[in-house]
Amino acid sequence: MRFYCWTNPLSSILKEVLQSAIFFETPEEIFTRVFRELKPRTPVPMVRLRFCKFANANSSARWDESGLEFRITDVLEGAPSAILESLAHILMCKLLRRPSPRTYTERYRRYLNRKEMRRSLQLVKQTRGRKFVSGPQGDSYDLQAIFDDLNQAHFHGLMAQPLLGWSRRPSRVMLGHYDPSHNAIILSRLLDQPGVPRLAVEYILFHEMLHLQFPVEHRGARRCVHTRDFKDAEKQFPLLQEAKQVLKTVCSGGL
Description:
- The longest helix has 16 residues, at 198-213.
- It is built from nine helices and eight strands.
- The protein is 44% helix and 14% strand.
- By secondary structure, the chain is α/β, with parallel strands linked by helices.
- A three-stranded mixed beta sheet has the order 1-3-2, covered by helices on one side. It has a three-stranded mixed beta sheet with strand order 4-6-5, covered by helices on one side.
- Helix 2 (27-38) packs across helix 3 (81-95) and helix 3 crosses helix 4.
- The termini are far apart.
- Strand 7 (217-219) and strand 8 (222-224) form a beta hairpin.
């Protein structure tokens, strides 16, 4: 003998709606709950949450005598509860100097790496962010002339020229970077010195030009900045090892 259980579709839908209403949490309630999970023996301080018009996806947290304050990018306003919960764990673990559980960090990164989120963040950077671009002419080197030479030698002269400039300060850590939001290549002013060989400037500019040709790839929660194609193309730069050795000398203060 067989028994069948028939369910009313409308009652199932109503049940789901009621459950979602019962378990709905405001962002403040989510962050408060996470605090209780991480600090069960500590009285819960006042939790204040503000969505701010930042120029990027950064968020911050502060805990003082007035309570817990979280300043979150407004791009995440209206994000799913699971994403806000993940962000709550990440920010509070930083405050408490604990490692954030991998489950939450990967969930948060996957959300930011979604195509529509990347587009939103890039638009925010373009409209709100400020980019200082000094122009290509430096004290010792002209990035315009070097770009044109590299473009002809390695890209058949087909690469559209981005904005070119030198950094405000002579950084030894970041010798160059490409900013896709403002389509700009900026080189460290450390390289704009008479004692720095042109080869070093050419290599750094060539490296950043490759970022235009081979954009960042997004794979789930991972961002691959230097893809296999990127690395293969970089190996075609003449005197590659010599250029890297010169840069080591420059960064160590040998020039």
